[in-house]
Amino acid sequence: MTDKPLYRRVVLKASGEALMGEQHFGIDVSVVDRIAADIAEARALGVEVGVVIGGGNIFRGVAVASKGGDRVTGDHMGMLATVINSLALRTSLNKIGVDAVVLSAIAMPEL
């Protein structure tokens, strides 16, 4: 492998389901820590990393609509699940000295 990365900026898409590991629901912290370590390795090479993370391991908004519920409310619930996953990843990154911020279309200034 070369010491000079091919790209200076990358965007990673991580599904919420990937964060479950072998579990059937929720977050496997060891998986999140492994993803954080990979991101830290890229950062050490000078690569700027953005992450788009899903929330399907916690909630699927479409499930609400399929049962007759309000689709917009279901989508908002799914967006909150992505924030939960984002906070887990940010925590793992911060633990190993990598600065990270969580951004969301739903205003959450305390994050």
Describe the structure.
With 111 residues, this protein is an alpha+beta fold. It has a single domain (9-95), classed as Acetylglutamate kinase-like (Carbamate kinase, 3-Layer(aba) Sandwich). The protein is built from three helices and two strands. The model has no long low-confidence stretch (mean pLDDT 93).
Key traits:
111 residues; alpha+beta; Carbamate kinase; two-stranded parallel sheet; 3 helices
CATH superfamily: Acetylglutamate kinase-like
Structural class from helices and strands? alpha+beta
Enumerate the strands of the largest sheet in spatial order, edge to edge or round the barrel: 1-2
Determine the mean pLDDT.
93
The level-1 CATH class? Alpha Beta
Report the β-strand fraction as a percent range. 5-15%
| Biggest sheet character | 2 strands, parallel
Q: What would you call the quaternary organization?
A: single chain
What is the 3D shape? elongated
Number of helices, counting only DSSP H or I runs of 4 residues or more:
3
Strand runs, count: 2
Radius of gyration: 16 Å
**Helical content, roughly?**
40-55%
What is the second-level CATH architecture? 3-Layer(aba) Sandwich
CATH topology, by name, is Carbamate kinase
Uncertain segments: none
- Output the helix-strand order: EHEHH
End-to-end Cα distance, whole Å, is: 36 Å
Q: Any idea how many domains? A: 1
Summarize the structure.
This protein has 3 helices and 2 strands; from the N terminus they run βαβαα.
